[in-house]
Amino acid sequence: MILTVTPNPSLDRTYEVPALERGEVNRASGDRMDPGGKGVNVSRAVAAAGRHTVAVLPLGGAPGALVAELLGEQGIEVAPVEVAGATRSNIALAEPDGTLTKINAAGPELSADEAASLLTEVRIQSAGADWIACCGSLPRGLQPSWYAELVATAHAAGARIALDTSGPSLLAALREQPDVVKPNVEELAEAVGRPLHTVGDAVKAAEELRALGARAVLASLGADGQLLVDDSGAYFASAPVETVRSNVGAGDASLSGFLIAGGTGPEALASAVAHGAAAVQLPGSVMPTPGDLDPAAVRVVAEVPLDRALTEPAA
């Protein structure tokens, strides 16, 4: 079972528009509503693959009730923590060329009691988990050290933990040695405090995160592919994508693929890339099913192209 923790979930509405024109009436050619938040998306991808998942998340108000309902419809077991504030609602505008404009709300502020209840629920649910995926930003009311507490809780329960967050929360959690961290290239650059221009730059940054405590680093390099750095070395993987329809949740689908395939080694990296490549070709934050995947298109190499310039370097 893969347990997910989403401290700041959302109700996501995605509109597909022919072209976004500021100050004008924009008519959508399609729209959909999904439960959102990085950990929620991981659970959705795990469920789409036919695997068992439990989603721990704080929920409040009518948006929170709708998030729980939508997750239940997708076969996801929900372990809610009731909070006083309403769950946030986000909006995404997707254009045909792949451009995505997002408006993310801040979300409710959690009280000290609510923060403690959330950690307690994770402790209760972690007993049966093979992996715990802790994902996304922290809501107001939770200190950056909260993720460090959660990692310690997961390890005490005997579960492996995957952490997908950034900034002070990521750096604070490294001391508890998460089993894998999953930054994108911008988050990786922020963590080491310098620009990343090549794949080699990303490898060096990943090695620095490992030196700070991360047991493995799964880094998304955008259109260039993904990088895995662990005890056995470094691996680079990529897959061709014909048309990018929406990248909402693609990184979360990728993490799901990595964990479904065992969460370690080049085989798991290949699964991560296959899931991410499939996700960007689907509308909104739709998660790929096994029928959407093309594992044969993924190329994994141990000879990492260190000098290869990143298509989208991180400042």
Give the overall average pLDDT: 94
The name of the CATH topology is UDP-N-acetylmuramoyl-L-alanine:D-glutamate ligase
- State the total count of DSSP E strands: 16
The SS-based structural class is alpha/beta
Number of domains: 1
Largest sheet: 6 strands, parallel
CATH superfamily: Ribokinase
Distance between the termini: 38 Å
Low-confidence parts, pLDDT < 50 over ≥5 residues? none
Shape: globular
CATH structural class? Alpha Beta
> Helical content, roughly?
25-40%
Order of helices and strands: EEEHEHEEEHEHEHEHEHEEEHHEE
- Which architecture name does CATH use? 3-Layer(aba) Sandwich
Annotation field: number of helices: 9
What is the radius of gyration? 18 Å
Element layout with pairings:
Layout: E1 2-5, E2 10-16, E3 30-36, H1 38-48, E4 53-59, H2 61-73, E5 77-82, E6 88-94, E7 100-103, H3 112-125, E8 131-135, H4 146-156, E9 160-164, H5 167-173, E10 180-181, H6 185-192, E11 196-198, H7 199-211, E12 217-220, E13 226-230, E14 233-238, H8 250-260, H9 265-279, E15 299-301, E16 309-314
Parallel strand pairs: 1-4, 1-8, 2-6, 4-5, 8-9, 9-10
Antiparallel strand pairs: 2-3, 6-7, 11-16, 12-13, 13-14, 14-15
Helix pairs in contact: 1-8, 4-5, 6-7, 8-9
Protein name: 1-phosphofructokinase
Organism: Streptomyces indicus
Keywords: ATP-binding, Kinase, Nucleotide-binding, Transferase
